[in-house]
Amino acid sequence: MSKFPSCLLLIGLAAASAEPQAAIFCVTTTPELQQALMMAGNNGEADTINVEAGVYAATSTVAFAYSSAQDFAVTISGGYLSNCGLQVFDPGLTQLTGSDERQVMKVLGASGTSGGQSISNLTIRDGITTATNGAGLEIGGGGGFTGNVSVSRVVFSRNVSNTFGGGMSVSSNGGIVNVLNNLFLLNRCGDGACAFTAPVNAPSPVGLRAYFGNNTIVGNTCTAGGSCPNTGARFGGSASAVFYNNVFAANTGGVDLALANLSGGSTELYNNNVVSLSGSPPAVTSGNIAFANPQFVDLLNDDLRPTATSPLRNAGTATFALLSIDLAGAARVNEGVVDIGAYENNDRVFTDGFEV
Questions:
Q1: Sign of CA dihedral 312, 313, 319, 322
Q2: 244 vs 54, 252, 309, 324, CA distance in Å?
Q3: Residue 257: CB partners within 8 Å, gap ≥ 6?
Q4: Burial of 278 (0-12, 13-18, 19+ CB in 10 A)
Q5: Coil/strand/helix, residue 38
Q6: Ramachandran angles phi, psi of 159, nearest 5°
Q7: Under 8 Å CB-to-CB from 110, ≥6 apart: which residues?
Q8: Residue 279 to residue 275: CA distance in whole angstroms
Q9: Structure confidence by residue, pLDDT tens digits, 237-269
Q10: 148: Cβ–Cβ under 8 A, 6 or more apart, which residues?
Q11: Contact 342/297 with Cβ under 8 angstroms?
Q12: Neighbouring residues of 18: CB distance < 8 A, sequence distance ≥ 6
């Protein structure tokens, strides 16, 4: 028997109240997740969709799609167990897949809306698109969408776009974008930005509007026959952005990070491991390193934790926001200084990764 109807909880005041309500979904199957996304886009409430551990695959054109013309936030998070009463901070437990046939997830707000969007604690893999950016995840909105967007602790693996953004396309036109503590691994693209593309605009370039911190961008490359001037990530738009504590490595056939600042926007780079840059020169560079071999535990088997001797260890900055845990669920700061990348060296500290 489906648990979906019994796991939809309405929180708030009575319907007669002017206060907005919130809906919480607990989903355990592909149809339940698709239904929750459809309902959340139109129910006139802020929505939280908790996704239990498992592999979710669909046969629709886009595996999992959310679209809204309302100003209500949506939060989607994985790793739940036991009727969503317990969350394990392991993105590998909840996997959304495109089965090498379709785009995995689309989360879009309509022009003129400002509903926030948040995705966390998931693996998004094996997506494919022919004419759409973001084979793994397309999130944000086109011109006129002003909502905040957050993507944190997500693994983007082996997604393929024949255009831009094999792993992800994230955008906003006035909101704040946070891309924190994610892994972009072995994604491919035909035109560029194989890990992710991020067009972010703002009414004024004054003040930072886009934050990219503690991400690991490794092994992303062009498709056969593609032409990719950058195989890592691309940031562009009129907003000002900061990249900090990110590690770029082994992104083949193009530069790691392409910057295209428009209308006075600027980009600042702090404490990244980045080997190659292109486009608009960054306004500020500080603490950056450029190691082609950052000494991961086991690159060939996708273990991208820094070793004890890695130059990433204790090489980050705490000037900007840090999550409390890394991508593996360990404490984000070990030995008093944050490491570069999505994973903290954890030779001395162990955690269970559970939250009750």
A1: positive
A2: 32, 22, 21, 16
A3: 230, 232, 233, 234, 235, 243, 248, 272, 274, 276, 277, 278
A4: middle
A5: helix
A6: -95, 150
A7: 67, 68, 69, 141, 144, 145
A8: 14
A9: 999 999 999 999 999 999 999 999 888 889 999
A10: 116, 117, 172, 175, 176, 177, 178
A11: no
A12: none
Nearest to 156 by CA among 189, 109, 132: 189
Q: Flag whether pLDDT at 169 surpasses 80.
A: yes
Rg of the chain over Cα atoms, rounded to whole angstroms, equals: 19
Closest CA to 200 of 168, 235, 151, 242: 235
Quick one: pLDDT band at residue 326, thresholds 50, 70, 90? very high
| Residue in the structure block whose two tokens are 């903290």 | 344
DSSP string, 153-200: EEEEES-EESSB-SSEEE-EESS-EEEES-EEES-EESSB-SSEEEEE
Average pLDDT, the chain: 91
Let me know: does 94 contact 119? Beta carbons within 8 Å.
Answer: no
Residues in the chain: 356
**Distance between CA 107 and CA 31 in Å, rounded?**
17
What mean pLDDT do residues 203-207 have? Answer: 82
User: Across-strand partners of 23?
Assistant: 10, 47
According to DSSP, the residues that pair with 70 across neighbouring strands are: none
- Structure confidence at residue 68 (pLDDT): 97
